[in-house]
């Protein structure tokens, strides 16, 4: 017996129980009245952007309809109803479900203008339009800067203890920033272990550290660790877009002199650095820099300060280049520690941090699909390696440009091709000047995304794009469309500045490695005898590199194997390390 015959007989049996009872035609779960009420309630919302009209289609019923329980009715798609659904009654008749008309949008511009201009910072019911401009480009800062356009320089703010030696966006965000810092502490085990071990000794007692780095929750953990070890700190931001305003507020509430906020102008940037350095009754004796701007400013404005400064710790390739230039010219008057070229910085922060954060930054700003995209990565150093690995893993077709034949050969061994002009995505991963110039951007295809994973804003020649014939269109926070006269446009992220810290976040655990390296470098330079370091640039001793790595191993429940005396003698090593010579930088990746 066929399936259809069995189904028909079952239907006949069920029909006997309900014959003679009145029936009503199948209707939509939403009647016109209910739909009208729903439409009215929607129209009262200030964020409503479209008017929806629902009209039930004519319903086809049998001449003598039989009422069927709604749960017993069978529903099937009907090809004659253009893909709609139909209710099949047990007498074989077909009742068409109501069909919605197309959504008819009202004047969107007029409706969106009715939205409130101020939305609570803590509101959980934000509209999609608002969240796209806040969270996508906020670097984990949930602050809605549209609430208050007053420059922090024009505000008079004090923390709960009456201290006003800071300049930030809003001191009222301190509680939220404190929670961000507490979360970061959980992912920075080495720095917290260093704080616990050395807190009693106070190895930085008397140190007056002036810093210029990214002001994030991870930096806050570093600053509070330095303070716990005895140092006094004054801090400014090394990037105008990377500051987390709520973290800066928490630091200011905690008594730190912080001068930074997200979205500084160029004038604000140098003003903040000057406020850190030029203060009555306080003079720094240590510098922690990221990019060399702080060191440059002191050399330019306050060169006499170097008489009391014991050393400089620099973590970026741009800043290290500047230090080597000063050393070569005989103008470097204090010892400097090159953290950027330490193994722990190169192999972890530069490689693994960028491997994860490149995708985060691009997704938050552009919602781009990586699969099948043709991407050019400029430079195949540690940052470039991380970017290439991440993009390739997501299905992108990755091309590389490189000046170093060794790095170029490494790229070849990884299966990357070499190209010059990108089709859809251009990632700069080197710390250099004019890597992407106007000539290249003129030749890029429509819709090409251009971003920078280097440190400074010199890698992409953004100044050449600020000409009368090109139109700039801000489409999102940190996202600009630069439009050519023929209508072609490129998507420029963070105005050519560092993508991951300007537009998203970076993995906290990796930054624990870099921050611990910086802390140890400061301790080493501050406590070293005068004869140990001359006025030159030094790499972090390998013993310290290995110590930083060992502090992070317990997190993974990793245990080291110990050399036997015979093995150590054979290798010519101390059983406790260091296991690499000082000239060792990093293994080939």
Automatic annotation (TrEMBL):
Q: Name one GO biological process term.
A: one-carbon metabolic process
- Note the CDD domains from the entry: SAHH (cd00401)
Q: Which cofactor does it need?
A: NAD(+)
Q: Does the keyword Transmembrane helix apply?
A: yes
Taxonomically, the superkingdom here is: Eukaryota
**Family, per the entry?**
Belongs to the adenosylhomocysteinase family.
Name of protein? Putative adenosylhomocysteinase 3
Q: What is the taxonomic lineage of the source species? A: Eukaryota, Metazoa, Chordata, Craniata, Vertebrata
